[in-house]
Structures are given as C-alpha cells and as structure tokens.
Amino acid sequence: MTAADDLAWGSFTEHAPWVLDRNDISWLANIDQRRVAAQAAVPELTRPSRLPPGARVITVLGRLGKALAPWAINRRRGRFGSPEQSRADLSKRLRLAAETLGPTYIKLGQIISSGEGLFPAELVEEFKRCRDQVPAEPFEVVRETVERDLGRRLEDVFESFEPTALAAASIAQVHAARLRTGEDVVVKVQRPTVDAFVRKDLRVMAWLAPYLIGRIPVAALANPPALVELFAETIVEELDFRLEAANMLDVATMLHDLDQEFYVVPRPHPRLVTRQVLVMERVAGFKFDDVAGMRDAGIDTEQVVRTAMVAFMEGAIVEGIFHGDLHGGNLFVMQDGRTALLDYGIVARLDGARRNAFLRLMLGATTNDPRTQMAALRDLGALPPDTDLDAVISDLRLDRPPIDATTLSGEEMVKEVQRVVTAMLGYGAKLPKELMLYVKNMVFIDGAIARLAPDLDLLGEVATISVLFAQKHGDRLGRELGIDPDSVEFDVGGARVALGLDESVDQLTYRQLQERRALIQKRMRDHIETDRPRLPG
Predict the structure, then answer these.
(1) Which of 56, 82, 144, 281 has the fewest CB atoms lying closer than 10 Å?
(2) Phi and psi angles of residue 272, each rounded to the nearest 5 degrees, phi first
C-alpha cells in the first residue's frame, strides 16, 4: 500500500503494512476499563503491610544485605578516597543486586537510569547497564507464549520469526518476523512469569521502603515510599500489551491533531495484540545518538531536537498526553529526518484539573510568576493542599532576583542546595508521577541537545517556542484557563531563573551551559572533599 486512510487521524508512516480502522480493532474492546482496573490495583500493591509479605522478603533482604554490607564496612573504615568513589561502589553493588533479584528490580533500575539530574550521576550511570545486559528468554519459551496468546502455531501466523531477540528488557523482548501475508514486523513478547513476580516484588518494596528513608545516601535524595508508588503506577500498565497498543493509537492521534509532521508512530496490528504479545509495524532509522550518521545523510540535527522539544511540550500542555519514557533506545531518526517514537509502555495522561494545573505551571514559568507556579504544583499534588504558598516562596527565595551559581563558592553552593532540600522536605513535597515523567523527559532532551545541537541558543529557543505556543494555541489555552491570552507576556526572566542566570545574560548556548555546570559541580566537589572528615587508617 502507498497511502492509508488512517493518516486522516493518526501520525503514521505513508507506506502502511495495514490500515487501522478504530471501529475494527479487536483488542480495543473495553480498553478504558482495563486501564482503570490496572491503576485501581496500585493502592493495594503499595500499601505497607505490618508483617513481611511472604518468603520473597527473605530473598530480597538477603541480596540487598549481601550487596550493602561490604560497602558500609568500607565506608566506616574510610577506605573510599572520595564521596564519588563511595557512591560509585554503592551504585555498582545495587545494580548487581537488582540483576540477581530479577525483572522488577531491573525495571526499577532502568527507570532510574533515565533519571539524570533526578538521581546521583553514579547511580544513573551504573543502572544504564541494565538496559543492555538483560538476558533473553530461550526461543522455546517465546514460542510457547506467542502460540498460547495468539491461539495458533507460530508457523500459521508468521512466514519467518527470528529466534534471536533484537533486544531484551526486563518486562519483554523483541523479535523480528514476517507475517504470512508478507509484512515485516517486530513482535514484543512478555516474559512468562513477570506479572506474578512484579506483584510480589511491589508488595516487598512497599513493606521495605519506609525503612530506607534517610538510611542510604542515594535513597535520601528521593522519598522511597513515593518512588515505589510511582514505580507501581507505571509498571502495572506495562504488564498488558493491549494498553500499550492503545497508547500508540492515542499518541498517534495527538501528534496528528497537533500537526506534528516530523513524528511517526509504528502501527500496532489490528488483530495480533494480546496481553503478552504485541505485533507492530517495523520501522528503521538512525539511533538518536548517531550524530555523524544523521549529518552524513543530510539530516538537520538541530531541527530534530527542536521538533522533539515542541512535540513533547505540546502533547503535555495542549492535549494532556505524552510519551513517559524517552531515551535513546526509544527513538529512531528516519532517512527523511522524521523521528519514529517507540515503546509505549509508559504514557502519562493529564486529565481535567491536573491538566489545568499543569497548564498553570507552564504559564507561571513563561511569565516568571512564582505564586502561580507554586499553586499549580500544589494542585498537581507536589505540595500538600494546605501549604502556605507565600511561606514557600519566601523560604525558597523565589521572590528575589536569581543568584548566578557560578558566582558562589563551593561552600555557598552546598549550603544553598541543603537549604532548598530541607525547606521542600519540611513542606512535605513529593514528585507526582506525571511531573516526574515530564522532568525525566526534559532531562533526556537536555542530553539530546548536548549531542545533536550544542550551539543552540537556549534562551532564544525558549522565546521562539513561547511565541509559537501563543500563536498556535493561545485562544484555546486562554479559554481553558479563563484568562485573556493577549494579556500574557513572555518573560525571559523565568528561563533565566530555571538556568540559574542573572539578569545580564541574554544569550546562552548549550555548550556554554555545560561549561557553567562543570564549574559548579567542580566547586561543590572540591568543597565536599575539603570539608570531609578524615578517618585514621
């Protein structure tokens, strides 16, 4: 086929292996009820029990104890030359423990590995190994799962099926195949015992999390119980591939409605999707970090990044839906410069009041209005409902001009970070699922800019995107927020605050931002190293 009727409502490839008709997709039946049921299970799975939940606790505690005990002894005896070495050793031990504990803990590690800026760098870097080093299930197990879920012999559905997986992750693995009708596809197959293991492990995590608060340095940067709840909310939907396939349709619809012509979604098969098997169109392209390959092919890498920023922000702000797990393995840049977006197990949805709060959060950032931002964070669930917003603004010094962090000494920077963290914890702050996924994606885009467009003027891009949003969506967003869009003025001060710049800076490339960050990090490390008490021996 060279044209497809489904291009009238979805952002798909032009050369369709099949055409999707929303009224004739077998696995879409009762999809909303399935999503509600999946999320309804989260409170029970994450409610801490008074007693250890089953024998699995013994295994988990044993593996964690075996991993942490040597690190704790070495730290107590002063055998680490620096805090970075201590964190690196601890991170490696946690990663090895996660791999031995199986799919649930590997998946948690993979989520952490995408959280640059949210978790310590050593932990993120170590857990990145979980993405590539998950052993695949034997082909006999894959065959059994596919045949059971599809209700047919493998040879009756597929002309060919590669026994070696293209990729293997904690929840599933992917195989290349060709249907008997001639279409090239990829087949995502869930690991057979992962559902039961995940549910057992979530109960163990929920029981264990309260005991970890403040006890492990890398866990002290997050709220372990809240992290478990966030993890549960994301992983329960990944256990049903029908939900993932429906996410593909919803994101394709969103991209089409926003006229995002530079993004495409692979088509899921209208019949060959079950709880544990997902057959989809095969797409190919450059890996997202293959800068040389893209440029040799004449692809404008700055445009690739610019499109990613706009598409991601438009989806969240305008339509209330966005891909929740952007990383290099989930994006292919095709020969024509468009980006194919893959893996829809984690998709964030903002409905009703929460989307309105998210809109106000972005508006407050655009207009440099701290009170609007704090009120929006409260309504998103990041702050308790009875929070004194004026007190938060005062304690965080958001009502004062921003301080350029590069003008501070290492000691001053450490104290400032400690002051902000202490203040936020004192107000009971936490990171809601949608906001955490949004921030995590922004961190990924930050890294993509570093690789694909280091000379991009960040302040100029923020201004351009703000004008684009005002022109394209101002009337609609104004109606939804009950404001006059013409009265809203973009204030570059908000972007300066986010980047830690003073008022004199009016241009900043990403390369310059990296230099600033390196200087700040060096001063903080130097201060911590100088100030660290030395133990004898």
Answers:
(1) 82
(2) -95, 55
pLDDT in tens, 322-351: 998 888 888 999 999 999 999 998 899 988
Where do the DSSP E strands lie in 238-335? Answer: 263-264, 268-273, 277-281, 286-287, 321-323, 331-333
Q: Which of 238, 261, 292 is the last residue of a domain?
A: 238
149 alpha-carbon distance from chain centroid: 29
Query: Contact at 8 Å (CB) between 233 and 381?
Result: no
Q: What is the rounded distance in angstroms from the CA atom of residue 77 to the CA atom of residue 82?
A: 13
Pair 213, 74 in one domain: yes
- As a whole number of angstroms, the distance between CA 43 and CA 214 comes to 23
Tell me if 119 is assigned to some domain: yes
Residue 71 CB coordination number (10 Å) = 20
Euclidean distance between CA atoms 493 and 400, whole angstroms:
12
For 223-262, the DSSP string reads -HHHHHHHHHHHHHHHT-HHHHHHHHHHHHHHHHHTT-TT
- Distance separating alpha carbons of residues 106 and 103, to the nearest angstrom: 5
Tell me whether residue 65 is in a domain.
Answer: yes
Sequence-separated contacts (24+) of 80-86 with Cβ below 8 Å: 82/525, 82/529, 82/532, 83/525, 83/528, 83/529, 83/532, 84/122, 84/525, 86/217
Q: Is residue 141 part of a domain?
A: no
The three-state secondary structure class of 338 is coil
How many CB atoms neighbour CB 184 within 10 A?
15
Domain range spanning residue 45?
39-133+196-238
For 157-189, what is each residue's pLDDT tens digit? 999 999 999 988 889 999 999 999 999 999 999
> Structural domain tally of the chain?
2
Its pTM stands at: 0.86
Amino acid at 359: L
Angle between helices 492-499 and 352-367 (to 10 degrees): 90
Q: Is 257 a member of any domain?
A: no
**Residue after which a domain boundary falls, among 177, 212, 238:** 238
